[in-house]
Design a protein that fits this description.
Chain lengths: ~230, ~200
């Protein structure tokens, strides 16, 4: 089977990860995933506002997801966040609560601002991928760097990394985020129907492909320091 | 052997590994982006957490019931009891002080405040401070020698300079911060200070 953009079943779109793109934020990252563009800034750990939200045992994490008004064909990002934006902020928050060592910073909060500049299907995975890099760039202690990919079923075939057309016309879509160190699942949402066997196949494919994403994340984080080393030491 | 590691990288080494690491199933993993050496892990970025006996440079932010709240470039603020000080502080004062106690939720008590005035204050990442001080204070000594500045280095990443060739000292400090993770830094800084030129990019 050939996909509408000529990719193989398990082929990812072109992925580019960049760390430390914003000067004022404590940590930041830009991910360009096919036609998706996700820009993330991380602030913190910092003082909690409002103060009654503070937890004396661990840091709290705030996640905001927003699509820019110019990000897609339909209208987005004007006025208050909609139901979908709240949902993605919430699932991303749960991902990072399980990745960040929050007990090291009691009575503080970590703010993660995720902005989708351009969208083409799979933006929540792109945003969380970028946020993971931004958190590491901010020097916040983490168990590891969450990485993931969306898998799904299009025209009866299990495929990886669906774009908007495939997402809208396909039978199922599963965004997945893993903890690459021990392959724990941090995020699993499913839209559509799959048989048990198909689901297992999709899960294995996502595990395999998320490793590619993780490699790029690590590369992006090391790049800045390696470049300076090269410059001064030859 | 220094190696750049990222969160989740396994670190081989003794059980006494120090720094930003965590242990799971008897193995040691890095928790931040940093440099892994034989015995310890040096973070390359992160926020300052107050530690006992640290000298910090802070701003007096608030005063009530004889206590001063001090911003110490950290998620947590320091407090000075009015009873413990001989000088009277005002909101907006820049001070250097010593951390006298820290508890498990990072409530920080400061003592021995000294008001700083004149001079110049710069802010760098606190993880670079050990590099600015150098082994047994060698780097700091060199900076003071070549520039004639008197320098107070706060562990929280705020550096106060007074007198002497301040622009040169600032340039040197920014260069140290930029190249903190490389080796042979002392020689390069020495060369820069000997030249005494300010056109170095930092």
């Amino acid at each position: 089977m050939k996909r509408h953009d000529g990719r193989k079943e398990d082929e990812l779109r072109k992925l580019k990860v960049e760390a430390g793109v914003l000067k004022r934020a404590d940590g930041s990252a830009l991910v360009e995933w096919g036609n998706n563009k996700a820009l993330v800034g991380v602030y913190g750990p910092q003082e909690v506002v409002p103060k009654h939200m503070a937890n004396p045992y661990r840091a709290i994490i705030n996640c905001n997801y927003r699509m820019a008004p110019f990000s897609s064909k339909e209208e987005h990002g004007r006025g208050i966040p909609n139901r979908r934006a709240y949902e993605i902020g919430k699932v991303a928050k749960h991902v990072f609560e399980n990745a960040v060592l929050t007990n090291k910073f009691p009575e503080t909060m970590i703010n993660i601002q995720m902005e989708i500049l351009q969208s083409d299907g799979g933006t929540r995975v792109a945003a969380i991928t970028a946020a993971a890099v931004a958190l590491a760039d901010a020097g916040i202690p983490m168990r590891d760097i969450p990485a993931g990919v969306a898998v799904g079923k299009v025209d009866g075939e299990i495929v990886a990394d669906l774009d908007k057309v495939e997402d809208n016309t396909g039978e199922a879509d599963i965004p997945l985020i893993f903890s690459p160190k021990n392959e724990e699942i941090l995020l699993l949402q499913m839209d559509g129907l799959l048989t048990k066997e198909e689901f297992k196949k999709a899960l294995e494919m996502a595990k395999e492909k998320s490793k590619e994403v993780h490699e790029l994340q690590v590369k992006a984080l090391k790049k800045k320091y390696e470049e300076i080393s090269k410059e001064v030491m030859g | 052997m220094k190696k750049i590691v990222v969160p989740g990288d396994e670190i081989s080494g003794g059980k006494t590994f120090k720094g930003e690491v965590y242990k799971e199933n008897g193995k040691t993993y890095a928790a931040v982006v940093g440099l892994a050496e034989d015995e310890r892990m040096i973070a390359l970025k992160g926020k300052y957490l107050p530690q006992l006996e640290d000298i910090v440079v802070g701003f007096v932010e608030d005063e009530n019931f004889g206590r001063y709240a001090v911003d110490i470039n950290s998620p947590y603020e320091g407090t000075i009891s009015g009873r413990m000080t001989r000088i009277r502080l005002r909101i907006g004062d820049i001070i250097s002080a010593k951390v006298s106690s820290v508890d498990e939720v990072h409530n920080t008590e400061l003592i021995e405040p000294r008001r700083l005035w004149g001079g110049r204050l710069i802010e760098v990442e606190h993880v670079k401070v050990p590099r600015i001080i150098g082994k047994k204070g060698s780097m700091l000594k060199m900076l003071e020698e070549y520039t004639n500045c008197s320098i107070i280095v706060g562990k929280n990443g705020r550096i106060y300079l007074r007198g002497g060739n301040i622009p040169l000292a600032v340039m040197a400090i920014l260069k140290i911060c930029k190249e903190a993770h490389t080796s042979g830094l002392t020689d390069r800084i020495k060369k820069m200070l000997e030249k005494g030129e300010l056109n170095e990019k930092a």
